[in-house]
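Ticket #4471: structure output looks truncated?

Reporter: J.K.
Steps to reproduce: submitted the chain below (357 residues) through the standard prediction queue, then opened the result file.
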Amino acid sequence: MSGFSPLGSASSGWGSARSFFDRVAPGFLCAGMAAMAAQFVSAELGGPAMLLALLFGMSVSFLGDDDRCAEGLMFSSKTALKLGVALLGAQITVSEVAALGLPITTLVISGVLFTLIAGAAIGRFVGLSAPHAVLSAGSVAICGASAALAISSVLPRGEKLDQQTSLTVVGVTTLSTIAMVLYPLIARVFHFTDPQAGIFLGATIHDVAQVIGAGYTVSDEAGETAAIVKLMRVACLVPTVLAIGFLTRRTQMNAAQATANAPVIPLFLIGFVAIMLANSVGLVSPVMTDWASTLSQSALLTAVAALGMRTSLKDLGKLGAAPILALVAQTAALAVFAIIGILLIAYTANGPLFGVG
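Returned output as attached by the reporter:
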């Protein structure tokens, strides 16, 4: 009878870990270097880091066909993404969202719902598949590239999903940058107060960095308001991804496929909520919040770079102009909805808008 050998068990475990590391490391390091390059160029020369990471990744897309990098790139585009989304919870507290008040909360949530429904209809109208239309609408409704990546993770794995996700990231990030310049001018045309301008910018611009950039070009008050409103939209990511995942499983997966796939509630969304609640009750210090924000940004950039390495410009060209047309129309629809909502609430309110300003 052979006895149990702890040393043998530990050796086997270490061997498995070493084997996994050897398979994953090449692709992960390539994606990480592209992410660091994007972050450096963005900090030194300006420009959206997400878009740069995707473009840098696509510039070396031949690595996606290299067997030595394939598993590491898959790991980066999936696991790093989930870590980055979960850590976004450290940027939000329940009290910050509650402080916005009922009118703004209603406007923001209804804007997200409107964009998801109307945006999906727009996507279908211009010829996108149902999953692609939902992916596009969700990225516009919530938080741009981060939302696109999170929603993509719960959509059915079609052969074009990576290309659709890449094009959505490119389109929504580009539109977000244009909005950062254009939307403060629109706020001025409508004679919005600083709080109104902040609400408009936070409720309509896709990416967090561009929201903050646009807000602080108006005023400090507008910047602070825009950031809080935007974070409330980010908080809508959890129920949105859960709903999309649930509907996807019901309509496009049979029982066997559903059993073989991820849990109904993805663990990274549970992590998002747990970290947000911990931050809300003071368990996350400001230093930890800064670290979490930096790590989240790095993880998301790595995921985007890996996605770019698995996508070629030739593949994107095959998708045609319809995805870009859908993104533009969805973005315009959200902006019009927000403007009408702000004007209606201002018209019905007595005194300063929402009691601020």
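Triage note (M.O.): checked the attachment and the full token line is present. Confidence is low (pLDDT under 50) at residues 253-263, 351-357.
Status: closed, working as intended.
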